Design the sequence.
C-alpha cells in the first residue's frame, strides 16, 4: 500500500510541477519544434532543463516540464493554464504550509517530546496534504481538459514512460537493498 501511495503522490507532484512550469513558458510554438525536426520546441531544448524558481538547481527528471513535456501549447492554452494555476495557488497559500512546518519544528526541538501532540499534528497535516493533493488533481484535470486529443495522447504516452522509469528505479532500489 505504501508503494502505491508513494507512486500516486510522486506522479501527482510530477504532474503538478510540470503543469506549473509549462504554464509559465512564454515561447510561442514553432511549427517543427526547435528547428532540428524533433518537435521539442524552443523551451524544450535538451540543454534547457533548468527552469527559474524552485527547480532552478536541478530541474526535474522530466526535463522541467512534467506532464506537458514536449507538448506544443497554443498561446491561448498557455494563458488558460497560467490562470488555472494562479487560482490554485491563491486557494492554497504558502503561509499555512510554513505554519505546519514551524509547529513540527517546535515539537522536535522542545525539551520533552509530546507524542500525542506529534500524532495530532501529523494527522492534521496529513488531512491538509490530502486536501491539497485532491485540489491539485482537480487543477491538473482542468489543464488536461484544455488539451487537444493529440496533445492528450502525448501526455498519456509521457505518463506511461514515467511510470515505467519509476518501476525500473523501484526494482533497482529493491535489488540493491537485498
Sequence:
Amino acid at each position: 500500500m505504501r508503494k502505491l501511495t508513494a507512486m500516486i503522490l510522486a506522479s501527482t507532484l510530477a504532474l503538478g510541477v510540470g503543469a506549473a512550469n509549462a504554464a509559465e513558458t512564454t515561447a510561442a510554438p514553432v511549427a517543427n519544434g526547435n528547428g532540428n525536426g524533433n518537435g521539442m520546441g524552443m523551451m524544450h531544448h535538451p540543454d534547457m532543463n533548468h527552469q527559474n524558481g524552485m527547480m532552478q538547481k536541478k530541474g526535474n527528471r522530466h526535463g522541467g516540464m512534467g506532464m506537458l513535456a514536449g507538448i506544443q501549447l497554443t498561446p491561448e492554452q498557455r494563458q488558460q493554464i497560467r490562470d488555472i494555476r494562479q487560482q490554485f495557488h491563491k486557494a492554497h497559500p504558502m503561509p499555512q504550509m510554513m505554519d505546519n512546518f514551524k509547529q513540527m519544528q517546535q515539537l522536535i526541538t522542545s525539551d520533552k517530546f509530546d507524542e500525542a501532540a506529534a500524532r495530532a499534528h501529523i494527522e492534521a497535516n496529513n488531512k491538509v496534504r490530502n486536501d491539497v493533493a485532491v485540489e491539485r488533481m482537480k487543477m491538473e484535470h482542468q489543464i488536461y481538459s484544455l488539451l487537444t486529443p493529440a496533445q492528450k495522447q502525448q501526455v498519456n504516452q509521457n505518463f506511461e514512460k514515467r511510470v515505467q522509469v519509476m518501476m525500473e528505479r523501484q526494482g533497482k532500489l529493491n535489488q540493491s537493498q537485498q
Observations:
- The longest helix spans residues 115-145.
- Confidence is low (pLDDT under 50) at residues 19-64.
- Residues 106 and 112 are 11 Å apart (CA to CA).
